[in-house]
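Please describe the entry underneath.
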Amino acid sequence: MAKNQKPIPISGSELQAHIGGKRYYRKQKNRRILRIISRCALVIVALAAGFLVTETLLGISETPLIEGVTAAPVATTTQPLTTARPLPEGPALHTFYVPLGLMDDREQARELMEQAEELKTNAAVMLFKDSGGYLSYKSDLMQQRLLNASQRTRWRTDWTLYDLKNRSQQKIIAVIHCFNDSLAAGLMPDGAVLLRNTEQAAWKDSQGKAWLNPYAESAQEYLLAVMREVIAFGADEILLCGVQFPTGDLQAAVFPGEEPDANEERLAASRNKALLDFLAKAKAVTGEKTLYCMLPFHLARNGGAEYGGTLWESAADVFAIDMRGAHWTQEDDFWKVQPVMPVVDSIENINGARDYIILEEEVLQARF
């Protein structure tokens, strides 16, 4: 080293390199390679995990819809369920029918309470509106005053209902006939099925009965108003009959609101939608109260022209299958996957059904 020349500083690593030579550099190189490999392995594992999670989430969110039902269907109260529904929770429903002739005074109402106790029932079926359009109670609706459907009725429905509900602890199931209303149809041209080529004359079926038009908003609103009034009157549940279009020779029938010259398929779909829309409105009226929709046995399974298909997708809580004159058996698997209940004419014909509705042939006699 030259005089006055300062020594060049040497780092520890350089000193080790100087001492260890090539052997040291090989070790250092191997350590660096191992560190690189380890880091790459960690990155690959992280990427693989992220990819798996992402694919799983995308697979769930992009599952295609099948007939309007997602991979995890959630029942809501704003739309009808499209899957099989059980009957409403609670004790089995055992009903008896209240004949109109026993709704005249309090003494006869006591007979009904004794009958309910003897039959061990928990619900009474009472007719509030028959297929002729007449009511079994005094209505405050303006339409009823115009129709004179209940002004002269003599049945003391309020007495009977009060005694059965408050003294005998019976639920009240109110029967209401809907579009098969000859009285209203004859006096409400804007809500009736009309006769073709006439000035708003009501069309009549083969039995001479006029019908309300399921498309007509006025007809629907009238029926909904009756439902509201009956509920306010004290009914606990509502059983709707006649939720259908008329049948038979309809060549001369005109349904205002229906698409003109529609083909058979579009016509059926249109009529079905009108009935489903009405039942959705009816369910909105009943709220938490059970809404029954009665179907004839021979049309219950596959529907018919009366419904433009079936009513299984409607908002009704339970379908009351009219088994009067037919055989009911719980062994039929079809009934096990639908919220249905048999309607029979006597307790002898329930055939072991857990829930049942007794419903006699109803003929309102308060027509003077």
Q: What stands out?
A: Residues 15-59 form one domain. The chain has ten helices and ten strands. The first helix runs from residue 12 to 20.
